[in-house]
Every structure is written in structure tokens, then in C-alpha cells.
Amino acid sequence: MDTKGNQFLRNMVPNIVMIDRNGLKRYIVEIHERDFKDVKPRELTIKTVKGKANVIIGPRRAGKTYYLFHLMREGGREREDYLYLDFEHPLFYALTPKDFPKILDMYEELYPGRKPILLLDEVQAVPDWERMVRYSLDIGSTVYVTGSSSRLLSQEIASHLRGRGLTYTLMPLSFREYLDFRGIKYRGRDAYGNYPLIVRSLEEYLRYGSYPEIALVEDEGVKLRILKEYLDLVVRRDVLERYRPRNRRLINELIYFSLNSYSRYLSFDSLYRLFKRRGKLTKRTLINYVRYLEESFAIFLLERYSPSVKERIVAPRKLYLVDTGYGNFGAKDISRDMENAVFLELFRWTSAHPLRRIYYWRSRTDHEVDFVLVEKGKIAELLQVSFSLSGERTKSREVRSLLKASRVLGCKKLEIITWEEEGEEELEWWGNRGKVRFIPLWKWLLKIG
Ligand SMILES: Nc1ncnc2c1ncn2[C@@H]1O[C@H](COP(=O)(O)OP(=O)(O)OP(=O)(O)O)[C@@H](O)[C@H]1O
Ligand SMILES: [Mg+2]
């Protein structure tokens, strides 16, 4: 039920909502007794800061809840030191922040003298949940918060918690995590011993994407079925239910467009011209709808690098999907998947540090560089993604763009990610000179070499 519905119920039945004490105690103990041995570690590391809640956001089904489970398993404390509460559990139906201290009392009765680390899941189910979090921080507790992306927008969290939350984004699996989930070793010599297996896994990773659940099932039909379900979930729950857009057909068309145009340019102007022909539409609506998809973590839009802020804003974006598996429902193709996977890995890189940014670059003469990596205000690297450079034309196109950008942007670190070509070359084009490194995608994703 949505927040409004909850509100309505509470107004109707003022004081009769009471916590089922026994039920709650059973719930707390049951979680402590649960077997978490199938819960696998993730790369996201959170450093707890006193007085701040750790807020985990991210796409649906990325593993946020399991991240909390993993903390219980190996967070460095005894299992009983954690209090995991899933506010969508029927036990907490119609709960308000006022009832929250009672839950803590009940924990105290079970474990006298212990102060729990709070793991609060699906917090959006409690109206004014931020009061609960602030209260917990005030009494000195360590708090982790997560929930469904549809109601927990990062900006909203920041404003609700009034600066008392630090936000972390958990994405679907990196390729390293994917291999770990599938039990394939790649560290040290194993990278070479297991080379055929790793490359086959990379093909699968690109084809079916990187959701944890997908990594854990073998059957192709099942994988696709799960993906379809996830996609519907994002569209239905995260976009349609949250934003209640009037033009539902347009949302579906934008999804269709995204599935067919990932790793390509998205220009609001041309998109507007395309959709306007099919019915009444303002550009504002179109921009808003695209933003809904972005806020729901269905798509990502990459800006062009330019010293001029204005140009950055008006230039077309590049569109990437949250998961390459969704490409199965659109125009799937290995080159796009490679570029999209590189984008997602770079997105993880930016999420790990507040002073990292990524852009694409394009010159007036249409030289293009897929990714410009910026760190602490300086351009750190220029990156191209190209399946193969065996065609002389492809190679010269990619290389020329890199060399040109290298001069214009003053960056000497140049890389081309390929499927299998590897090496380093000193290259020159019209007086633009530079050393270009070629690296296969699997190595780049695994950070080898
Ligand atoms: N660390 C993990 N170890 C093992 N399996 C995992 C892990 N993370 C996720 N999974 C699998 O993926 C599924 C979805 O994960 P989870 O429920 O944690 O996602 P979520 O981000 O909380 O999703 P939602 O936004 O829908 O609440 C789990 O049911 C489990 O099968
Ligand atoms: Mg969850």
C-alpha cells in the first residue's frame, strides 16, 4: 500500500495499531537463526561515520537486501548485534515512527545490554521514516538504510535526512563479482589457466547481463524470463506507480527506444520530433519522462565533455542501460554490449569517489571518444571501446579520434578496449602524437595488466 493509503488508515483507526510483541520477538530471533551461507560478498565497502546513516540505493534486484544479510554474516560482529527489520513485512503494517522505540525495547528484552546495529530495509513503507532514522542516530546507533529505488531517490534521502545520511549506490554485479558468484577463479595465474572459461563467462555476462539472480541460474530460458520480469517491475512499479505519468504509452515507447538505442546518442530534439508526429506532446513532458527512467535506474545518460557548461547541457547525451541483459528485448549487439558494460564499470568507478566524473567527447569534425575520465577536476584518461581493430578503417578512425582528443584535452593516457587485441603503439596523425594502449575487455574489467 502506498504512503497515502497508510495515512488514510491511521486516520481512520487512531490508536488501535499495536505491535504484536511475540510476533516481533519471533521475527528478530528467526532472522538471527537464518542460514546465510549462500549470501555472497560484494565489492561495495561502506565506512561508517559517526552520526551518519549509511544509505544504500540502486537499481531494483541489484542485491541491496542481500548486502544487509551479508553484513549480518560477516560484518565483524556477532549475528545478534544486528537488528534487521523489513518494513514491508506484515508485522509492521501501519507502523509509524512513534512505534519504533518499542521495537528497540523488544530487542533489549531479548538481548539485555546490547545495542543493535540497525539494518532498516524497505524504509519507504513507513511514512516519515526519516524520523526513525534520526532518532536512531540520536541515541548513538549505527544505521543502514535501504529500500526500493522507486521511492528512495538519492536527492530525497539527502533532503529528508538533512545531511545525516551518506549515500552509496549498489549496482548489479561487476565482472569480478560475476566470476566470484559463479565460482570461477581469476586472480593471479588463474586468469590464464581459466582463460577459456573467463572469456565464455564474459560472453554470457554481456548476453544476459549482471543481475545476481541471473548469474546464479544456468538455464537460458529462465534467465530471460527473470529479465523480462525485472523489466516489467521497473516499468510498472518504479516508473508508472511512482510518477503516475498521464501518457503511459509514451513511457512504453521510451523504454522501447532505449532498448533499441543503447550505447547510442539521445538528442531530446530529435526524439521530440520523432514522438511529436504520433500525438500531442510538449518537450518538457518528454524530458520529464526520460528523467523518470533515469531516476528509476533503468537508463543512464552520459553528458558530453566540454569546458562550457551550456554546451554540456544542450549537447546530445549517450544512452546506456542499467543491464546489458535488457538488450535481449531490443537491438542486441556485442559492440553495444561491450560499450555499455564499460560504461557500467566506469559508473561504479565514479560512485566510489565523489570527485570522479565521466563524459563522452566529440569534436566539431565528428571525432568521437567514448569515455573521458575526470578525477579531481583533471582529465585522467581517454577511452575507446571497439570490438575489433582488424579493419584498417576502424583502427584509423578510433586512433585518430583519440590522438585528436589527446591534443585538444591535453591528456596522454589513451586506451582502446577491444575483444582480444592487445599491445601498445606509438602513433601519429597530423602532428598529433601519442602512445595508445590496447587491452582486451576481460582484462580491463578484471583490472589485470
Ligand atoms: N550477495 C548475494 N549473494 C547471493 N545472492 C544474491 C546476492 N545479492 C542478490 N542475490 C540474489 O538476487 C536476488 C535479489 O537481491 P535483493 O533482494 O537483495 O535485491 P534488492 O536490491 O534488495 O531488490 P529490491 O529493490 O527489489 O528490494 C536475491 O533474491 C538473490 O537471489
Ligand atoms: Mg530489497
Sum this structure up briefly.
The protein is α/β, with parallel strands linked by helices and 449 residues long. 44% of the residues lie in helices and 18% in strands.
Number of E strands: 14
Which ligands occur here? adenosine-5'-triphosphate, magnesium ion
Large-scale geometry: globular
Major sheet size, sense and barrel closure? 6 strands, mixed
Cα separation of the termini: 51 Å
Q: How many structural domains in the coordinates? A: 2
Rg, rounded, reads 24 Å
Strand order of the largest sheet: 9-10-11-12-14-13
Percentage of residues in helical conformation: 40-55%
Estimate the strand proportion.
15-25%
Structure description:
The structure is a single chain. The protein is an alpha/beta fold and 449 residues long. The chain folds into 2 domains: 3-169, 3-Layer(aba) Sandwich (Rossmann fold); 190-446, no CATH class. The chain has 18 helices and 14 strands. It has a 6-stranded mixed β-sheet with strand order 9-10-11-12-14-13, sandwiched between helices. The chain has a 5-stranded parallel β-sheet with strand order 2-3-4-1-5, sandwiched between helices. Strands 6-8-7 form a 3-stranded antiparallel β-sheet. Helix 2 packs across helix 4 (100-110) and helix 12 packs across helix 14 (283-295). Magnesium ion (MG) is lined by residues 64-65, 121. Residues 64-65, 121 line the site of magnesium ion.
Fold topology:
Elements lengths: L2 H10 L8 H13 L19 E5 L6 H11 L7 E5 L13 H11 L6 E5 L7 H10 L4 E4 L7 H7 L4 E5 L5 H7 L8 H4 L1 H14 L3 H5 L3 H24 L4 H13 L3 E3 L1 H9 L6 H13 L3 E4 L6 H6 L2 E5 L12 H18 L4 E7 L5 E8 L2 E8 L6 H18 L4 E5 L4 E7 L2 E9 H6 L3
Parallel strand pairs: 1-4, 1-5, 2-3, 3-4, 11-12, 12-14
Antiparallel strand pairs: 6-8, 7-8, 9-10, 10-11, 13-14
Helix pairs in contact: 2-4, 12-14
